[in-house]
Design goal:
Elements (H helix, E strand, L loop, with lengths): L1 H10 L20 E5 L3 H10 L4 E6 L3 E3 L4 H6 L4 H4 E3 H4 L4 E4 L2 E4 L3 E4 L4 E3 L2 E4 L11 H17 L2 E5 L3 H13 L4 E5 L11 H13 L3 E3 L13 E3 L5 E3 L2 E4 L39 E3 L12 H19 L17 E5 L3 E5 L4 E4 H8 L4 H7 L10
Parallel strand pairs: 1-2, 1-9, 2-5, 9-16, 10-11, 10-15, 11-12
Antiparallel strand pairs: 3-4, 6-7, 7-8, 13-14, 17-18, 18-19
InterPro entries: FAD/NAD-bd_sf, FAD/NAD-binding_dom
Function: Putative FAD-dependent oxidoreductase.
Pfam families: Pyr_redox_2 (PF07992)
């Protein structure tokens, strides 16, 4: 279909990002680029620069866990074998420090384990705060534990009606159609970050799958006792297990006493210019959710940030004029929310659709194969 080709072109991996820099008579010593955060944006920046720079990746974990695949991994643990990728598998030329960054000066980055890493350039891609185990094996075991928990219970409570909560409800209802699902959302409608038409489509799909959706109510899980909890309106809910799918804070608190403390806006996001450099700092970039760019924060957007940043870093390291730097401008906003394995709801600039087409675009493989291919990996197997 034409819409498939059009949509795919928006996410098609950029070519040429691994090309080498121009050389003079002697090969120059490579500059050091420190990438902080090994998620959606950071992984692509590190991968794109590893052949042309001395790249150091600082990440609290040893792997990249493709975020839009995590919910399916909870109900199909084998899916995570492709979506949880050790950094070393796609970054053979990169020094990987499995620790969190705690400070940045104008010369070096300090990590939680006490290392001080000097840099020529820095890219900050710390996204949102999340608790995650250090190793891939531990992460895979977490997914297996989630699966066993869901499999063994009768009633599952999902707290939060954003994309995470809605997609988790869809995954569980597809794999375990006999489970009783209760989704509680504090807002007046699901998926409030997009239009009401898409929101209603998701609501209709969930209710058709007999998911009990409760809107305009919140839950204090600190008062959960014996699987029973009360909503803000006093309604009693009994569930055998629950999953919290509410928003997470921006991963910028570590910058509050750094040289970038004045570069954070009131929401804790880094203020960047059109080249994705942090304003006031010519050699520090930011990509992904931590930036203050006014756009819906999504994975494909972070990937676009990463491609622009990698291009600009190559240009600067090659000694070319700043006037040639690529600029980033938010494009048309597009959102696809998976509903199980075969359906979904999609909001494009001029149309909102539900059903099979958005399911075909995203839900079948959740872009995992394409994401692996962007990192130089076999789309389906662990080996390259």
């Amino acid at each position: 279909m034409a819409i498939f080709s059009w949509f795919y072109s928006l996410f098609k991996p950029k070519v040429g990002l691994q090309s080498g820099m121009a050389k003079s008579g002697e090969e120059k010593k490579k500059m050091r680029v420190v990438v902080i955060g090994g998620g959606v944006g950071g992984s692509i920046v590190a991968y794109s620069l590893q052949s042309v720079a001395d790249v150091v990746l600082i990440d609290q974990k040893e792997y990249y866990d493709i975020p839009w695949a995590s919910l399916r991994s909870m109900v199909e643990p084998s899916f995570a074998e492709r979506s949880v990728i050790n950094h070393i598998d796609y970054l053979p030329k990169v020094q990987i420090i499995a620790s969190s960054a705690t400070n940045i000066t104008d010369r070096e980055v300090t990590t939680e384990d006490g290392q001080k890493v000097a840099y020529d350039y820095v890219v900050i891609a710390t996204g949102h705060l999340e608790s995650a185990p250090k190793t891939k094996a531990e992460r895979l075991n977490e997914y297996k534990a989630d699966f066993e928990k869901i499999k063994s219970v009768n009633t599952v409570l999902i707290v939060g009606g954003g994309p995470t909560g809605v997609e988790l409800a869809g995954e569980i209802s597809f794999v375990f159609p006999d489970k009783k699902l209760i989704l509680v959302h504090r807002g007046p409608r699901l998926l409030e970050y997009i239009g009401s038409k898409a929101s209603q489509m998701a609501m209709n799909w969930l209710t058709a799958k007999k998911v009990d959706v409760i809107l305009d109510q919140s839950i204090n899980l600190n008062h959960l006792s014996g699987g029973v909890v009360q909503t803000s309106s006093g309604e009693t809910i009994k569930a055998d297990c629950h999953f919290v799918c509410t928003g997470k804070p921006i991963g910028s608190s570590w910058l509050n006493k750094s040289i970038l403390q004045n570069s954070l806006n009131i929401h804790g996001k880094l203020v960047v210019d059109q080249n994705l450099r942090i304003r006031g700092h010519k050699n520090i970039f930011a990509v992904g959710d931590i930036t203050d760019i006014k756009e819906i924060k999504q994975g494909y957007v972070a990937q676009k940030h990463a491609h622009v940043t990698a291009k600009n870093l190559k240009l600067l390291m090659n000694g070319e004029s700043e006037s040639k730097m690529a600029t980033y401008k938010p494009g048309w906003e597009m959102v696809i929310v998976s509903l199980g394995r075969k359906e979904g709801v999609a909001q494009f600039p001029l149309i909102t659709i539900g059903g099979y087409i958005p399911g075909k675009i995203k839900s079948e493989d959740l872009f995992v194969g394409r994401t692996r291919k962007q990192l130089g990996l076999n789309p389906y197997l662990d080996e390259k």
